[in-house]
Specification:
Elements (H helix, E strand, L loop, with lengths): L1 H16 L5 H16 L6 H47 L7 H38 L11 H13 L7 E8 L2 H8 L1 H18 L5 E6 L2 E7 L3 H17 L2 E3 L2 E3 L3 E7 L6 H17 L5 E3 L6
Parallel strand pairs: 6-7
Antiparallel strand pairs: 1-3, 1-6, 2-3, 4-5
Helix pairs in contact: 1-3, 2-3, 3-4, 6-7, 7-8
Length: 301
Amino acid sequence: KSLVVQMNKELVNNIDSQDEVTKEQVIGYLQNAIITIKNIDSNKTDSIEHAKLQFTNAYKEIAEKSISSYQQTSGELEKISKLHKEAVNEFTPYAIHLPTIINKFNDIQNYMAEEIEKANEVIAMLTKQVQDLEEESNLDGLTKVFNRRALDRYLQSLTSKGEIKHTLHLLMLDVDDFKNVNDTYGHIAGDKVLIYLANVLRRVLRDGDKVFRYGGEEFVIILNRLKQDKCQDIVQRLLLTISTSHLLYKGHSIKITASIGATQYINGDTPQSILERADKALYKSKNSGKNQMNVELPDGN
């Protein structure tokens, strides 16, 4: 029931906030909602909360499409207005005996200027709405995993508890030589690689594990209630799956590898301290040949 309320709220707010919403946009939102609901495990709170965030994300995509449409309209109006003004200025000396025509042209000029101003006001309003949605959303718009903001909140909540009774591992994963992918195949291919990698992580990891996009081509993974040897097993399976799979893009087979830095939560950790240890371990993996994992334990080993 809460999911339906969330879906209805986001859709109605979107429709109320815009002058015009197309039927196709609403259908697309509802189709995404159906897919989201089908993938929900109703026994898992995390799954339900993640679905709510996907509804919000779908609403954001509708708003972004509306902004793009308004920007295009505004741009075309500005071009027409400029051409019209140039025509009036050029022929005014020859039309001194046609004041009525000149007045009509000026009326059109004023009308178009008013429409441009209205369109720009709508663009500013929709842009602000998207910014507000991005601030409230916990999902990364590209990969659909949790974003950096959600990670900050999660680690802040975790470390504020002080002592926890179960083992928690934090992994920092970075795509090796990601710049080469962008340089060779283009940034769209780079985005496809990140989406593909996020799907691999979701497929290999357990339902209770959490994946965050840390920034660029880096991801942070939280493994809860897992012993050290089991953590290493999961990481090795991840590295193997990533390195032996490939993404097909415009007839090209793009293969990637990843490096991972791992650490373990200890009582007294801060978000900064646990991330710094994982980053230090990741640095070791990068400098030791990549496509591997290194561990930085709290005692510096």
